[in-house]
Design brief:
Blueprint: H1 14-27, H2 48-62, H3 79-86, H4 107-117, H5 123-132, H6 136-142, H7 156-166, H8 170-181, H9 188-205, H10 210-221, H11 227-237, H12 239-243, H13 247-263, H14 269-292, H15 296-309, H16 314-326, H17 330-342, H18 347-361, H19 365-378, H20 383-389
Helix pairs in contact: 1-3, 2-4, 2-5, 2-14, 5-6, 5-7, 6-7, 8-9, 9-10, 11-13, 11-14, 13-14, 14-15, 14-16, 15-16, 16-17, 16-18, 17-18, 18-19, 19-20
């Protein structure tokens, strides 16, 4: 039996995107979490990432952003748009937060809008929230970035995020970030964050470039002292030995990252939320590294941490299902991908496809075809799904 796992890769380009959005709007698989469509209260279907976003919104609305710890992970800014499409609400796609449909918006949403109209308080935190909600133009305005003229010492990280999500050229943004990281007049934390961005972007592409090595050198010179930021520091540096095939060197840095994570002692619920927000990408990286170095059973064990941290995050079930498939445990993979499908939204398409792959391995052909059809119904732009369904994907 063929154990090769097909690659799930949606077609690129604006036409494919239009097909994807039209299909998602008609698929009947809306996101179950209430945070993204209008900042509703987190519930039993919400991920930790959604809880973080809602928490930031509450503190922005209350004017108490000074109490917030530093968080690590930003959701994809199109999450709000994709969530609205999944609910069939094209009236919620616009770029103006104040024009959001009243029947979808919670009271917290309007309190944030009021803060945006008045004194924004901490501009960096407000910009972070606006980016999380997919309002890049508002975030740029809050940061005074109608035209980018250079990094501000206190706002560089948020400025970089605006550039990253607003400019079409990734290479251009990486060049800007690396130039900023070279600036001795910027504080070390800002330079570290800018260099870390360049390092991670190159590392994820598998590109061992001069920019990656220069960024890594700046990252090492500007290393933070606090345990959680230092965890992210080591986790990013692990790309350097990984790309040159140095597996022991990779694990040495990831072990240091894990030690930093455990050294942080969250004392308040807010601190715990931040601790979880840093822990998730660490364990995701550990799981993926086990997969890429040929140890799928170890990867499965690592994903158990993700299930404990955020069982309502589609990323949890994507990596867990991938690991179970790689470990040739298709019955458990079916359960993992089914959990991903249940969360709804566009990621359910990928989960449904790989559930079909697992079902096919188990000899459950009719169920596999039904799962492939669900994937195609949500996103009809993936060649692997069409191939699995044969000549008539509909």
């Amino acid at each position: 039996m063929d154990r090769a796992v097909p690659r799930y890769a949606p077609d690129p380009g604006p036409r494919a995107l239009a097909r994807r959005l039209a299909a998602l709007a008609a698929a009947g698989v809306p996101v179950r979490c209430r945070v993204w469509p209008g900042l509703g209260d987190p519930d039993a279907h919400s991920s930790r990432l959604a809880e973080v976003t809602h928490t930031i919104a509450r503190h922005v609305a209350d004017g108490t952003t000074a109490a917030l710890p530093r968080f690590n992970t930003n959701p994809y800014p199109a999450t709000r748009v994709l969530t609205a499409v999944g609910h069939g609400r094209v009236d919620a796609l616009g770029p103006d937060m104040a024009a959001f449909p009243a029947d979808l918006a919670s009271p917290l949403w309007w309190r944030v809008v009021d803060r945006l109209r008045a004194d924004p308080g901490d501009r960096g935190v407000l910009a972070d929230l606006l980016l999380r909600l997919g309002y890049q133009r508002h975030a740029a305005e809050v940061l005074g970035m109608t035209r980018f003229t250079g990094f501000h010492p206190d706002l560089a990280v948020r400025q970089l995020a605006v550039l990253h999500w607003s400019r079409p050229s990734s290479a251009e943004v990486e060049d800007i970030a690396l130039a900023g990281a070279r600036q001795d007049d910027l504080p070390a934390p800002a330079r570290h964050a800018l260099a870390l961005f360049v390092l991670v972007r190159n590392g994820r592409r598998g590109a061992e470039t001069p920019a990656l090595h220069e960024a890594a050198a700046i990252v090492e010179r500007t290393a933070p002292d606090e345990p959680l930021p230092r965890q992210a520091h080591y986790r990013a540096l692990a790309f350097v030995p990984f790309l040159r095939g140095d597996v022991p060197g990779t694990w040495d840095l990831l072990d240091r990252a894990a030690a930093c994570q455990h050294a942080a002692r969250p004392g308040t619920p807010l601190d715990r939320l931040a601790w979880d927000d840093y822990a998730f990408p660490l364990h995701e990286t550990i799981a993926r590294t086990h997969l890429r170095t040929g140890h799928p059973d170890r990867a499965v064990a690592a994903t158990g941490e993700l299930v404990a941290l955020s069982p309502n995050d589609h990323r949890t079930w994507a990596i867990r299902g991938d690991a179970l498939l790689a470990a040739d445990r298709p019955d458990e993979a079916v359960d993992a991908f089914t959990s991903g499908v249940a969360l709804g939204g566009l990621p359910a398409a990928r989960a449904a496809f790989y559930r079909g792959v697992a079902l096919a391995r188990l000899g459950r052909a009719e169920e596999a075809t039904a799962s492939y059809r669900l994937s195609w119904r949500i996103d009809p732009t993936v060649p692997a799904v069409a191939a699995a369904l044969g000549a008539s994907p509909r």
